């Protein structure tokens, strides 16, 4: 079957796009193992040692039969307005800075957005809103994100989806959420040392983030905080979380406290520990879906306020948008 031209590069691709065939920013590695089951996801996620490893392994995953069938069917059938374009049709990897100050967590790729363009929040109306706001607050180089290869870059920011494949009706099942969780766990663990703000777009992402932070060993509040727009929960650094006992003298080799902001992980870097010295803030934000933006439930100032607060927490200033620069910690 002849391919269709990529909107930026003009190169021809069939849909879904074969691994490492030249698609802009394709993180996949030809010949690498492909996850076909939930056990595979756990095993391969546990072997990753940096975010490019995670992206490579995620981008070929086939562990959820219903989602694989859906993403590939959509990629072949296409929406009429995109009939002349190739569709990515594979999982959407995390994208952005390798050592971000801000981590943005969404629900799942859109069938004709990320599933078409191969980049998270790219090519749909939700992404239009999100990237415009990121640009306004200094977290993106350009105000739009339309195609992989368009020059867009995030500044000190990384975006991930809780579920990495487009689901029918934007609704993954709890089983699909759990099957995909090890990819998020691996990526979250790798970026936690630099992250100061986690922005959860919608209640699904909010729930997933708290579960993942708990699995990563953070001392998360119980009961879990309720989702709300502009909700802000500070996870304090060790010095500020439960006060140290007044006396008794410490033994010669005191065991480390179980919690107090200490992140201990089994995967992907077994035995690795990280003492989070600057604290972490989790922010809630209404998802910039058309359902919310058309109805006025989410306005541009509301979105800018949350993302601007995340930028402030991460120490990113608006004038960090220097052409050719990815800002701090990229
Ligand atoms: Fe793999 Fe996640 Fe996609 Fe399921 S949703 S096939 S676990 S990438």
Summarize the structure in short.
This protein is an alpha/beta fold and 330 residues long. Helix content is 29%, strand content 11%.
Q: How many extended strands?
A: 10
Largest sheet: 6 strands, mixed
Identify the overall geometry: globular
Q: What compounds sit in this structure? A: iron/sulfur cluster
For the termini, the CA-CA separation is 39 Å
List segments where confidence is low: pLDDT < 50 over at least 5 consecutive residues: 247-276, 322-330
Q: Helices and strands: which structural class?
A: alpha/beta
Strand content: 5-15%
| Helix fraction by DSSP (H/I, runs of at least 4) | 25-40%
Strand order in the largest sheet = 3-5-4-6-10-7
- The string of secondary-structure elements, in order, is EEHHHEEHHEHEHEEEEHH
Rg over C-alpha atoms, rounded to the nearest angstrom: 20 Å
Average residue-wise pLDDT? 88
What's the tally of helices?
A: 9
Q: Which key phrases capture this entry?
A:
binds iron/sulfur cluster, alpha/beta, about 10% strand, disordered C terminus, six-stranded mixed beta sheet, about 325 residues, about 30% helix
Characterization of this structure:
There is one protein chain. The chain is of the alpha/beta class and 330 residues long. Helix content is 29%, strand content 11%. The protein has nine helices and ten strands. The chain has helices at 38-46, 51-58, 65-77, 114-117, 125-137, 174-191, 203-215, 290-294, 300-313, and strands at 4-5, 12-13, 95-96, 102-106, 157-161, 197-201, 232-235, 262-264, 273-275, 280-285. The strands form three sheets. It has a six-stranded mixed sheet with strand order 3-5-4-6-10-7. A two-stranded antiparallel ribbon has the order 1-2. The chain is globular, with a radius of gyration of 20 Å. It starts with a strand and ends in a 17-residue tail after the last helix. 48% of the residues are buried. Residues 247-276 and 322-330 have low confidence and may be disordered. Residues 41, 58, 61-64, 67-68, 91, 163-165, 176, 179-180, 183 line the site of iron/sulfur cluster. Iron/sulfur cluster binds at residues 41, 58, 61-64, 67-68, 91, 163-165, 176, 179-180, 183.
């Amino acid at each position: 079957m002849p391919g269709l031209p990529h909107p930026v590069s003009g190169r021809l691709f069939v849909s879904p796009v074969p691994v490492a065939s030249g698609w802009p920013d394709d993180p996949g590695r030809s010949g690498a193992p492909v996850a076909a089951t939930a056990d595979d996801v756990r095993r391969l996620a546990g072997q990753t040692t940096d975010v490019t490893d995670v992206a490579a392994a995620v981008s070929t995953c086939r562990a959820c039969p219903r989602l694989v069938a859906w993403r590939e069917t959509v990629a072949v059938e296409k929406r009429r307005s995109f009939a002349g374009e190739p569709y990515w049709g594979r999982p959407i990897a995390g994208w952005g800075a390798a050592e971000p100050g801000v981590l943005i967590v969404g629900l799942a790729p859109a069938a004709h957005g990320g599933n078409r363009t191969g980049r998270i929040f790219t090519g749909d109306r939700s992404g239009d809103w999100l990237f415009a706001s990121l640009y306004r607050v200094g977290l993106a180089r350009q105000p739009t994100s339309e195609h992989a290869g368009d020059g867009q870059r995030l500044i000190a920011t990384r975006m991930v989806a809780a579920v990495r494949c487009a689901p029918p009706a934007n609704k993954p099942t709890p089983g699909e959420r759990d099957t995909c969780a090890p990819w998020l766990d691996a990526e979250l663990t790798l970026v936690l040392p630099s992250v100061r703000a986690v922005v959860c777009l919608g209640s699904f992402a909010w729930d997933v983030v708290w579960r993942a932070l708990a699995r990563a060993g953070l001392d998360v509040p119980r009961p879990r905080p309720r989702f709300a727009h502009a909700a802000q929960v500070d996870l304090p650094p060790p010095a500020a979380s439960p006060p140290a006992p007044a006396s008794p003298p410490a033994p010669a080799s005191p065991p480390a406290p179980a919690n107090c902001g200490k992140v201990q992980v089994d995967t992907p870097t077994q035995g690795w520990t990280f003492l989070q010295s600057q604290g972490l803030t989790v922010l809630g934000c209404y998802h910039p879906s058309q359902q919310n933006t058309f109805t006025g439930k989410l306005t541009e100032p509301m979105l800018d306020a949350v993302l601007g607060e995340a930028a402030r927490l991460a120490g990113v200033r608006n004038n960090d948008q220097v052409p050719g620069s990815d800002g701090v910690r990229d």
